[in-house]
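USER:
I would value a second opinion on how I read folds in C-alpha cell form. Give me a protein, with the fold worked out from its sequence. Write it directly below this note and I will take it from there.

ASSISTANT:
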Amino acid sequence: MREISRHPYQNTPRDAVVTAIDYADGTLFPLHDHQRGQFAYAASGVITVFTDDGNWVVPPQRGIWVPAQLPHSMQMRGPVTLHNTYIRKQAAQRLGLPGQCEVLDVSPLLRLLLMKAIDVPARYSTQGHDGYLMGLLLHEIASMPALSLNAPLPAEPRLATVCRAFLQQPSLQVGIDDMAQRAGMSRRTFTRHFRLHTGISYIEWRQQACLLAAIVMLGKGQSVTQVAMDLGYSSSSAFATVFKQVLGEVPSRYF
C-alpha cells in the first residue's frame, strides 16, 4: 500500500487544508491511502472510488468522504475539477464523520465555502477570519446527508466474483436466477447470502449498481434514452424516476 505524497499538507498543523486541481478524463490514482481524511468534491465531472468493500460514484456538484488510512483507488470520468479537503483524523472524529466511504450531498453554502477555502493558506491563523471560515467549512461537511450511490461488495468469494463481473456489464435484465447460477448456488442460498454479506437484497443492489453506471455514462455525454436502453430500463421515464429519487432532479436537467 502506498500513500499519495503529492500534497505537502499531510503534516500541516491545521485541522483542514483545501486544494483545487483539474484532471484529464481517465486519470487514475491506483490503490493508496492518506494520513488525513479526504473530502473530494467534484466541482465538475464524475469521480469513481473503489475499495475492498465496494465502489462509489460521485456526480458533478457532489462529494465523497474517504476516511484516513482507508485503501482506495480513484478515477476521473471525463474532465474533472476536484476540490479536496484534507481533514486531520482527530478533527474528523470530533465532527462525527463516518468510518467508511460515503457520497455526500453538497449545499450551496458548502460550495461557496470550498471556493473561498481554496485561497486560504495552509498555515492559516486559527483565531482570524480564515480560521473561522475553515471551522464553518468542516461543520458544513459533517452536516451533509449521505446519498445512496454505492454498490457494496460481499466478502463471500463466489458472490464477490459475480458482483465484480456484473459491475463490468451492469443490466437490470440480469435476474436473481442468472446470478445464482453464475455463483454456483441455488436461488435460495444466493438470496440469503447476498443479503447477509451486503445488508441489502440483490434487486436493491442491482438497481444501485445500474444507477452508478448511468451516472458515469451521462457524465460522458451519452443521451438519457441510450443510457436507459443500455442498462435495461423499461423506458427512459422509468430511469428518470429512479434517478430523481436519489439526486432530486431528472437526469436531463441535472446534467
User: Anything to note?
Assistant: The longest helix spans residues 202-219. DSSP finds ten helices and ten strands in the chain.
